[in-house]
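Aggregate trends can hide what the representation actually does to any particular protein. In the encoding step, the backbone of a single protein was reduced to a row of integers, each denoting a local shape. The record that follows shows the chain in one-letter code together with its fold in token form.

***
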Amino acid sequence: MMPATATRSVVPDATIPPVALRPDAMQSIEALLDSAEAATRDLTGARPARDGGKETLHAWLERVKAVRGRLGYFPYLGSGRGRGPLVELLDGSVKWDLINGIGVHMFGHGDREVMRASLQAALGDTVMQGNLQYNADSVAFAEFLAAEAAKHSAMKHCFVTNSGCMANESALKICMQKRNGAPRVLAFSDCFMGRSITMSQIGDEPGYRHGVALSTLVDYVPFYEPEMGARSIEMSVWHLKEALRRWPGQHACFVSELVQGEGGFKTAPREFHVALMQACREAGVPVWDDEVQTFGRTTSMFAFEALGLGEYIDVVTVGKMTQACACLYSEAFNPKPGLLAGTFSASVSSFHTGLSVLRRMQSGGYYGPEGRIAKLHAAFRTHAEALVNKHPEWFPPAKLPFGRESRQFVGGTGGMMRLTPFGGDKDRIGRLLQNLFEDGVIAFYCGHGPYHLRFLPPIGVMQPEHFGEVFAILEKSMARTA
């Protein structure tokens, strides 16, 4: 069953001067929200397309193909209706959305509080804000992130921008300026930074930079491998120090994903990160923590807080669930005038909805070892491990480099969840994802061999009991694939 509707509240956030709305306008907003909720009460679980729905969806997908040049990974086109973890497509089918725009919709679909913030923002005087002219909500959004980051680090300032990729571009520019134009970057193997020309070169996926003129110099450090334990830490530190020895004074920064996203939802113990960051500190190399996908999804709002790494971090980037994106930095890394700017920072709606999401996550009991995120991850692991034990034939060991094998079929942390069937074979996992989509669950993949099923559920509204129906569909889809 779906979770109960969120408690209604009409009090605007006190930290943002609210749009001057008359009482009748506020009453109209509440009436609209009531209507929207009533229109989605029939969305209670996955269901197939309605009669004639597939033809309608196909016609629209042909239009998508014509205008974009190709179709996306799934035949996905939303109807505009959704309820929590459930989303309706244009063909009338309803699916469990466990990827959520790759982690953007923290409170899923049709959330009353998010819609209220968006409607109030829509009655403001402009649609977009920028870095030359902005309203108070832009300041309040940046203040919230800076204050949260400062609790456990030297972060002080926040530059808001319109995408995670641009936040990462800003972080790199800050580090390069601090290091007087040092041209090289240290990064983890299998990392992903974004799709700009520079970020696609730092990201460790050749397909994302095919045909792009290469201009960024990158030295890769292996990420932690649990099968190797302490030996993995030794190897990664050796690779990092060897790059520092080979190119003395040439590195602008070490960009660290504390939890790898696209690389496979890989995690590492604190001592792994400390060893690398300490080596960077000794060499005078700034540490940039990329939390665009990780932010908000571990047992603390910032992953560096969960791992106790705040003292080593110089720059942090966040995005996705925040709606607007940001680059945070310490006073020592405050850039010179002119380095960071942009016509658009975000929409007024993004600031209002983003701050609404952040405040609810902050005060809603989501964080800590007994928080809602930890309990949701535990429920995922319980169901996933039961599936592995029930069908061991679907879970052969995954092949790792140098002939090694992994039997860690369930992985990830917090709201970043991973399952590795079929030995991590890319083609079979691709077929499984298509079958899952048809059967009523939207997921995605991650990793570069082995490949994994990736789940980014809407942790703001997903309940542990929802995994019962999700895993029933998953078992059905895996049987079809196998």
